[in-house]
């Protein structure tokens, strides 16, 4: 793929820059050696070092002798690498998940009773997750991820948008200048630090004060993840709100509307796509959040009984992977990759959705002076 | 310029109604804050305020608030105060009280043990609907105050008449948790105080659109304050817990800082430290920057300077956004499946570096692209007009002009990956140890391909975030394991947050300079 992109561009490059034979030879060596490095590395051969050296030499020669052509080609390669990495992630995660799909089939999403979801009938599994009987159903983990994400977004969504409204619409400039960077710094607190806080302090606090039967609950995980996602939502939603042209607000105020009416009926609807993109990003973060969930939750691969019991100690997709990869092999390991596939696909869909929503906002506001 | 909408048409001294309403808001804030502290068990029911038990004090405050709101609400309806209420309280207010009524009735049926958990549900919904429609028939001053009065009086009544005591316990069969009175009472008083203060703020604004603005601003400002308070409390908590262990045995002269300069020696007489983890994190960050950033900047240059909008650029954009949002644990799985078998077959520092480099790449690509995009076209045109080639222009005009933005993006990106644990967990691991990894001293030339070997790179290395995780999972047997963890968390927090602080300060500095030019 890489090679063909390069070769496809060669004739154009030649016309554009009147490429000399030496430069053309350098480009051929460069692309062939890169391709060979990649192929040999995929085949797990230590010989990959040889074409890698050739690639480096070719780039070095090209940089000295034909800098503009080389720069163009090298930057193109760098650009293509984004697609290549996403492709590699997709291929490898799916590839390693195949054995689990082969063993479990649609039972990977099976309940303890046979059920039909969206017209797909799912076979029953004896237990949800058992290495002993080689049975792996992701249903409890998917439920856990759903519940924690929902709790997190109930917290981070409304409170985050309200926080952004405060920063963008109400706060005086001085307060805003102090608080906005502060919020962005807070977005940087590593998740393992939140996790440690939850593990050492909050887990025991809830255990004692809510007289729980177990340490670690979906509720606490959702609470902590919501707190973590809050600064991200505030920051992105604030960017969306401030990007609404001031002329729109001024028009509304000139008509005699109060500031709050302006915020509610002009700014917020105009920035709605950006604000919902912020929430979507927050959901993506919450779904993929690993360490806080892993450290806090109690790791039992069961559906809570009854389902509404948010204080039960179950498992999320991310915490399943992080807690079990160490002693997993064969189908068990493959089932963990299947959990990764579910995460990856969900978040990818959300990200594409958020991007589309954002583009719509840019288009809508771009036309205004 | 917008942002300056001060409109003080009425500049008389405050009226009686406004004074009552602001007193209600003041008491509300006090009751709310005390209630939150009580939920967090910072203060308990044993505490007493002004000679009364805390919970009775909260209930009493709530009762006073209810009375105050009753006075301003009914007073406004009777024409005693100069207000401008609308004909109805509005959908938001009616809806909010409807939901509260539904929840209250449902919870009450659960408490009385009639109808079962699901049977009470339709009854609650019915109550909510009746409240919603009923409020629509009232004028705004009555409709938005009376329900709040009812809630405040009901909550304070149950507490003051000892219907609800700290010893009370509700242990529903369908939840693994039980709610004791000592947690439930402050939760209820906090919610009721917020609601009543909201109603008070509306009457303070004289109802109508001004009143709704006052109410909304109270809630939004409280939310912002509360959010900042909670997040600052998190940081302060970690700092107070971690600063002790982190500075154990610290001395300025002769300079010694055992926690930062020692390894984890498992010896009881020496302070166990995080030096190897700091070195490991340093290698990780530098390695990921070296591998990820040049690729990101090169790609950003190509996308903004060479490429034209088309399917290729569209695909790259989708890929970049996809990579940006891919969960870190999925990167870990990818590294585990792709890199680990190809780089020596065990978890290694090199795999960690590459995976974090892959994660850093999209972060820096997006920010670098924005930075290069924001370089004015005049720069490029001026350079081209002088006969400078496109690449020379990029090299000596565009990239230097975009450098502040690129650097900021890199610093913020590095701050994020420095705290990443999940990918390291899968591809690098490396637990507590005494000696730091020595990467620079381990390079060796070999006769077989790949001709260069580096044992330190191909072994697992410790890193701060993973070390913190390890103190939890391995349950380090030493008696001060928890303190050691807090110390590690503190150091990690300082490292990561200083990256963020520096990055954000750089950005503000350059933005300000740009705006003044």
How would you portray this structure in words?
The complex is a heterodimer of chains A (369) and B (517). Chain A is mostly helical and 369 residues long. Chain A folds into two domains: 2-102, no CATH class; 135-366, MetI-like (MetI-like fold), CATH 1.10.3720.10. Chain A is built from 14 helices and four strands. Chain A has helices spanning 2-17, 21-42, 49-65, 67-104, 139-170, 173-186, 191-209, 218-242, 246-254, 259-270, 272-288, 291-296, 317-324, 330-366, and strands spanning 115-117, 120-122, 129-130, 135-136. In chain A, strands 1-2 form a two-stranded antiparallel sheet. In chain A, helix 1 packs antiparallel against helix 4 (67-104), helix 2 (21-42) packs antiparallel against helix 3 (49-65) and helix 5 (139-170) runs parallel beside helix 8 (218-242). The longest helix of chain A is centred in the N-terminal third of the chain and has 38 residues, at 67-104. Chain A starts with a helix and ends with a helix. Chain B is mainly alpha-helical and 517 residues long. Chain B has two domains: 16-89 and 138-232; 275-479, MetI-like (MetI-like fold). Chain B is 68% helix and 3% strand. Chain B has helices spanning 16-39, 54-77, 91-112, 116-136, 140-143, 146-160, 181-204, 208-246, 258-261, 275-306, 311-325, 328-339, 349-373, 377-385, 390-418, 422-427, 464-473, 481-516, and strands spanning 48-49, 52-53, 169-170, 179-180, 443-445, 452-454. In chain B, the strands form three sheets. Chain B has a two-stranded antiparallel sheet. In chain B, strands 3-4 form a two-stranded antiparallel sheet. Chain B has a two-stranded antiparallel ribbon with strand order 5-6. In chain B, helix 3 (91-112) runs antiparallel to helix 4 and helix 11 crosses helix 13 (349-373). The longest helix of chain B is centred in the middle third of the chain and has 39 residues, at 208-246. Chains A and B meet through helix 4, helix 5, helix 6, helix 7 and helix 8 of A and strand 4, helix 8, helix 10, helix 11 and helix 12 of B.
């Amino acid at each position: 793929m890489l090679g063909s992109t390069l070769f496809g561009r060669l004739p154009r490059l030649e016309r554009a820059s009147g490429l000399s034979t030496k430069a053309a030879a350098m480009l051929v060596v460069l692309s062939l050696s890169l391709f060979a490095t990649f192929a040999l590395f995929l085949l797990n051969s230590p010989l990959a070092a040889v074409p890698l050296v050739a690639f480096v030499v070719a780039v070095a020669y090209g940089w000295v002798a034909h800098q503009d052509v080389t720069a163009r080609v090298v930057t193109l390669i760098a650009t293509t690498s984004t697609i290549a990495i996403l492709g590699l992630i997709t291929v490898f995660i799916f590839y390693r998940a195949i054995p689990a799909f082969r063993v479990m089939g649609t039972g990977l999403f099976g309940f303890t009773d046979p059920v039909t979801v969206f017209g797909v009938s799912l076979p029953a599994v004896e237990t949800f997750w058992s290495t002993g009987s080689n049975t792996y159903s992701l249903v409890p983990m998917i439920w856990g991820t759903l519940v924690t994400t929902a709790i997190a977004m109930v917290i981070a969504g409304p409170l985050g948008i309200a926080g952004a409204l405060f920063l963008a619409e109400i706060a005086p400039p001085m307060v805003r200048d102090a608080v906005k960077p502060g919020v962005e710094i807070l977005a940087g607190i590593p998740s393992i630090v939140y996790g440690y806080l939850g593990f050492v302090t909050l887990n025991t606090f809830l255990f004692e004060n809510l007289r729980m039967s177990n340490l670690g609950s979906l509720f606490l995980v959702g609470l902590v993840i919501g707190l973590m996602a809050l600064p991200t939502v505030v920051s992105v939603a604030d960017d969306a709100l401030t990007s609404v042209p001031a002329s729109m607000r001024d028009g509304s105020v000139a008509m005699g509307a109060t500031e709050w009416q302006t915020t509610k009926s002009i700014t917020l609807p105009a920035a709605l796509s950006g604000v919902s993109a912020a929430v979507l990003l927050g959901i993506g973060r919450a779904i993929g959040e690993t360490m806080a969930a892993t450290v806090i939750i109690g790791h039992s691969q069961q559906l809570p009984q009854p389902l509404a019991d948010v204080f039960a100690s179950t498992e999320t997709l991310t915490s399943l992977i992080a807690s079990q990869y160490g002693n997993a092999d064969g189908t068990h390991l493959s089932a963990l990759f299947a959990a990764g596939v579910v995460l990856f696909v969900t978040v990818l869909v959300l990200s594409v959705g958020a991007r589309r929503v954002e583009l719509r906002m840019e288009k809508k506001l771009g036309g205004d002076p | 310029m917008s942002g300056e909408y001060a409109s003080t048409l009425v500049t008389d001294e405050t009226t009686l109604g406004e004074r009552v309403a602001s007193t209600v808001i003041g008491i509300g804030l006090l009751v709310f804050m005390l209630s939150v502290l009580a939920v967090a068990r910072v203060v308990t029911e044993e505490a007493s305020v002004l000679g009364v038990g805390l919970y009775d004090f909260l209930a009493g405050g709530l009762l006073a608030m209810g009375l105050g709101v009753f006075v301003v609400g009914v007073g406004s309806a009777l024409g005693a105060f100069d207000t401008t209420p609308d004909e109805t309280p509005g959908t938001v207010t009616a809806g909010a009280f409807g939901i509260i009524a539904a929840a209250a009735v449902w919870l009450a049926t659960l408490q009385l043990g009639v109808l079962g958990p699901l049977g009470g549900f339709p009854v609650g919904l019915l109550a909510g609907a009746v409240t919603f429609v009923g409020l629509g028939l009232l004028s705004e001053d009555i409709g938005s105050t009376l329900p709040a009065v009812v809630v405040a009086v009901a909550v304070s009544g149950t507490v003051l008449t000892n219907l609800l005591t700290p010893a009370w316990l509700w242990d529903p069969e369908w939840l693994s948790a039980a709610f004791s009175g000592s947690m439930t009472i402050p939760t209820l008083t906090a919610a009721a105080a917020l609601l009543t203060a909201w109603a008070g703020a509306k009457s303070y604004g004289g109802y109508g659109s001004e009143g709704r603005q006052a109410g909304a601003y109270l809630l939004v400002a409280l939310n912002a304050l509360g959010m900042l308070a909670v997040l600052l409390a998190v940081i302060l908590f970690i700092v107070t817990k971690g600063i002790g262990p982190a500075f154990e045995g610290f001395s300025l002269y002769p300079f010694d800082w055992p926690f930062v300069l020692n390894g984890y020696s498992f010896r009881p007489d020496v302070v166990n430290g995080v030096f190897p983890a700091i070195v490991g994190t340093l290698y990780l960050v530098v390695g990921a920057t070296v591998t990820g950033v040049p690729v990101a900047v090169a790609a950003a240059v190509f996308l903004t300077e060479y490429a034209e909008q088309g399917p290729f650029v569209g695909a790259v954009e989708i890929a970049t956004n996809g990579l940006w949002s891919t969960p870190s644990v999925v990167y870990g799985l990818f590294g585990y499946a792709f890199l680990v078998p190809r780089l020596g077959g065990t978890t290694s520092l090199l795999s960690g570096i590459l995976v974090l480099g892959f994660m850093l790449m999209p972060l820096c690509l997006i920010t670098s692209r924005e930075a290069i995009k924001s370089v004015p076209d005049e720069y490029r045109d001026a350079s081209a007009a002088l006969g400078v080639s496109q690449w020379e222009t990029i090299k000596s005009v565009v990239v230097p002009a975009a450098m502040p933005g690129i650097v900021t993006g890199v610093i913020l990106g590095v701050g994020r990956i420095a705290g990443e644990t999940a990918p390291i967990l899968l591809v690098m691991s490396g637990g507590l140890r005494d000696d730091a990894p020595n990467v620079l001293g381990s390079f060796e030339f070999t006769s077989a391909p790949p001709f260069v070997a580096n044992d330190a790179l191909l072994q697992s290395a410790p890193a701060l975030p993973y070390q913190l995780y390890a103190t939890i999972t391995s349950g380090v047997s030493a008696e001060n394991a928890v303190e050691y963890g807090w110390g590690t968390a503190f150091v990690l927090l300082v490292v990561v947050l200083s990256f963020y602080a520096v990055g954000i300060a750089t950005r503000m500095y350059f933005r300000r300079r740009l705006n003044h030019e």
